[in-house]
Amino acid sequence: MAQDRRRRRPARGHRRGGSARPAAPGPVLDLEVERIAHGGVAVARHEGRVVFVADAIPGERVAAQVVDAGRERFWRAETISVLRASPDRREHPWAEASVDRAPEQRAGGAEFGHIAMARQRELKADVLRDALRRMGGVEAEAAVEPVDPAVAPGVDPEAGTGWRTRVRLHVAPDGTVGPYAARSHTVVPVASLPLAAPAIQAIAPIARTLEGATAVDLVAPADGDPQLIVRSPGDHRSRRDAAPTITERVGERRFTVDRDGFWQVHVGAAATLTAAVQDLVDPDRFDPAADNQDLYGGVGLLAAAVGDRFGSGVRITTVEADAGATEHAGANLADWVGARAVTARVDRYLDELAAAPDAATRGLRGATVVLDPPRSGAGRAVVDRLAALRPAQVVYVACDPVALARDVGLFRAHGYELEALRAFDLFPDTHHVEAVARLAAIV
């Protein structure tokens, strides 16, 4: 990336949401909610127009106030009261995000918290399945799996709380500290941060005022004490200054990461994705001596997953545009004789492979590629280049179902087929879902 990893998803804290709310409230509509759309909002209709409504559940009847009527084809609205509740509606685990509060005072970042956990996962699976059908051209089923409690200490699996190891809070001009309200940049004062890991809850300065600050970052690494970083308008770090680092851990393996760099947010996510990648790599197609690749590799987490699965002699190159992450990847993978770390943009790196003298006959034939792009996905430029090099299989880790579905469609146009798919609830009480897919070269 100038930062590929940092574009991937909000690495810390609560979702900023969209544009500012309109100066004057719109009409209040009586809506029958039909389904959940990509992005976590529900879909209803009013006089033939689609209305995207927040804080509702399919099957409910709600009163919702229009907050954006600026488009001809659809409006946006906020639930202000539930007229007929779904049996899946529950009390929100975060009081400050409850539908009982005025929309402009609802904390953002927990937009599914009003939905029972099992139903949350069903709705996420529906969105993933629909996206793959519409954009990928495939019918695929994947239940969204909860994180194994064995790799997620402190997490309440029924409430979906206690899982965030990175949180960003914002500071209002008067010094108030809190998350942004959903879909706005208004800072909401809160008395708790239930989605945060207990270590972060213990140090979060939500009862203080911090005049002159702009944000507060909270990080709870696997090894070491939690850290609180107050951000100010003039903050900057010279390129010559060493970035502060932390240590993360998956099982017995440790990873050095820049404190401000990318690491999975859920306390159990890194272990979950490690196991999923190891499971989805087809051993019958895996060649340890091939030119195996870990693209958008960060600090080497998934390259390590492949190495641990198939042995320290595996040949694998991890590619990442963030030079700091690549430096850490080299150290984190130092015990693999066949591993190397390259700093490069993925599209340009693939161009270099394609320009090699033996590319026409060799390319990446026989290789396994782990592809873990930012939230926007790999996109046509990368998929076209990668498919032309003909790896035997691609294990694609995705944090956005629509981006995954689009890229699956692109791979299928190049003679690859979706062979396996798993999905994981790495963001409980939000609409986000993580998926891991295996695409294999068929023709």
TrEMBL record:
Stored Pfam families: TRAM, tRNA_U5-meth_tr
Positions annotated as active site in the UniProt record: C399 (nucleophile)
Which segments carry the region annotation Disordered?
A: 1-26
The TRAM domain, residue ranges: 22-81
The record's listing under Gene3D superfamilies reads: 2.40.50.1070, Nucleic acid-binding proteins, Vaccinia Virus protein VP39
Q: Which PANTHER family match?
A: RNA M5U METHYLTRANSFERASE, TRNA (URACIL(54)-C(5))-METHYLTRANSFERASE
Q: Which family does it belong to?
A: Belongs to the class I-like SAM-binding methyltransferase superfamily. RNA M5U methyltransferase family.
The name this protein goes by in its record: tRNA/tmRNA/rRNA uracil-C5-methylase (TrmA/RlmC/RlmD family)
Species this protein is from: Agromyces flavus
Q: Which classification does the entry list for the species?
A: Bacteria, Bacillati, Actinomycetota, Actinomycetes, Micrococcales
